[in-house]
Amino acid sequence: MGDDAASAAQQQRIAALLDEARGGRRAAIARLLSLVERGGPDARTVGRLAHPLGGTAYTVGITGAPGSGKSTLTNALCTHARTESDLERLAVLAIDPSSPFSGGAILGDRIRMGDQTLDEGIYIRSMATRGHLGGLALATPSAIRVLDAVGFPVVVVETVGVGQVEVEIVASADTCVVVLNPGWGDAIQANKAGLMEIADVFVVNKADRAGATETVSDVEQMLNLRPEDGWRPPVVSTVSTSAAGVGELWDAIWAHRRHLERSGEGERRRRGRTATELRGIVAAQLAQRAASLGSGPAFDAVREEVLARRLDPWTAADSLLGPA
Amino acid sequence: MGDDAASAAQQQRIAALLDEARGGRRAAIARLLSLVERGGPDARTVGRLAHPLGGTAYTVGITGAPGSGKSTLTNALCTHARTESDLERLAVLAIDPSSPFSGGAILGDRIRMGDQTLDEGIYIRSMATRGHLGGLALATPSAIRVLDAVGFPVVVVETVGVGQVEVEIVASADTCVVVLNPGWGDAIQANKAGLMEIADVFVVNKADRAGATETVSDVEQMLNLRPEDGWRPPVVSTVSTSAAGVGELWDAIWAHRRHLERSGEGERRRRGRTATELRGIVAAQLAQRAASLGSGPAFDAVREEVLARRLDPWTAADSLLGPA
Questions:
Q1: Minimal CA–CA distance to B126: which of B154, B159, B148?
Q2: B296-315 pLDDT, tens per residue?
Q3: If you ran DSSP here, which 8-state letter would residue A96 be given?
Q4: Could you tell me if B312 lies within 8 Å of chain A, comparing CB atoms?
Q5: CATH code for the structural domain at A54-272
Q6: Where are the alpha helices (DSSP H) in A63-175?
Q7: Domain map (residue ranges) of chain B
Q8: If contacts are CB pairs under 8 Å, which of residues 26-65 in chain B contact chain A?
Q9: Residue B303's closest chain A neighbor by CA?
Q10: Contact A324 B270 (CB under 8 A)
Q11: Least CA distance to A55: which residue of chain B?
């Protein structure tokens, strides 16, 4: 895949950026994440160089229907982690497949997250890969890889919606938090979206509203039907605007982290995640190969041979594909 | 792709079947089509051996909403072709992706097509590839290839429904017939299903019912909006149960065939069809490669190296893929 490799000069530039980023320069982190977001040879180089430098970051995925208050909750959780717990640094990746903004949306992030950006220990970034099929699924692990290599011990991955790709991204985190709201049927909707299966921790946010108790008991009932596997997801009630319950949420997330380490489930998840990413890269490379094999002079020549019945289509396909 | 090749003995058996089929033995044709339908190495061998023997069959695709009377119309068209025109032999492939019956559904076909099966000049076969993703799209060109190699000058491909795969199959025929019924909105529905674009000939079947004239004029109006490309699809009214209009339909199909030959459009379509099939085979081979690369001892070994950060996922993917 010669055309897939960045030039030597570009590789050196990326290596230098990585050094700067590890030295704490935020602009270098932002540049690296933009390269990852854009995909292609540069993204691959960033991933290759960052990979050996990481391996210790703990990832927390946060998902839920739009409007459930995930952003405010993530905000409150970051403040808690930095002020009430001893966490030195923390990164947030906000995944938004539908966003018309790419990494450049830093201003939007600053506005959204408010006071957090004044805290040098918190790094916030939104990710969007416009019109790039499967782009987010491939880009997110590498964005986490960069933040891991740079030295963030915790990376929070927050999705804007609950689309299939977003759910998959969150499901591949170490700990997966599903945010619900009070109200009839929210738990049932979450169940339909496949969120009940992936949740390690449930949050009923906006718990000062009517129906919160019922929603908590809906979730508990669904959990009663779920087979026991050594971890029963706790259901935490929060009011993110007043930060009520946010400490309990942080404790529940940390309890799950300890469970992952003790039970070996963490290792199993890392193994599964690595396999999924590897399969994704193999599939993407083969799809790229298929696309490039399906046009051009070699393809046209072989097609004419098939049309003239001098070659059958399978032998023709084999000749295009080369040896397995 | 060593595991994709049938054994030498099996290749000899298939070559012998092909000889028998070309000698006129119907049971041999049926066996070959069953092999094609099932997919895998045997289907590939059938296609490879049949490919150089054909190249002259003219294909007519017939599609339309379920219940539009396509089967009865095909039936009437076959009778007309055999008795009123000079066509010596004719084959019908009825494509039914949802059918619980596979090639064995000959009894069903005999019942369905009634008197046609008493005519030795007509060969009828239904095709279904259960649970075989993309199976029909790959199997249909090879089923046509077999009938072509066996010596049928005309192959009619009839679909049961108007699903995406079925429309694509019919669209790749030399001449594409779209069957509508009288009634408000049928032409509009057909337009939505993408049928207006692929039609070379329109049929308003059950034309003895109310609204037939309006449907014909709906279609004509839509055709007025279509850019001229040297062929304006005729709109033929038929009553297939009484065979009224079936002669005109046959003439319209034959007129399109002459247009294809004169204008070079026929050659252009064959070229496009060959390219599409070739791309489909390349994609299927690569998907098979991706699936086999995504598990097994080699994959597990490489995944552990990635997990241990001794290998990055892209280098790992490259080592699984081998040289391009």
A1: B159
A2: 999 999 999 999 999 999 99
A3: -
A4: yes
A5: 3.40.50.300
A6: 70-83, 106-113, 135-150, 164-171
A7: 54-263, 279-321
A8: 44, 47-48, 51-52, 54-55
A9: A275
A10: no
A11: B309
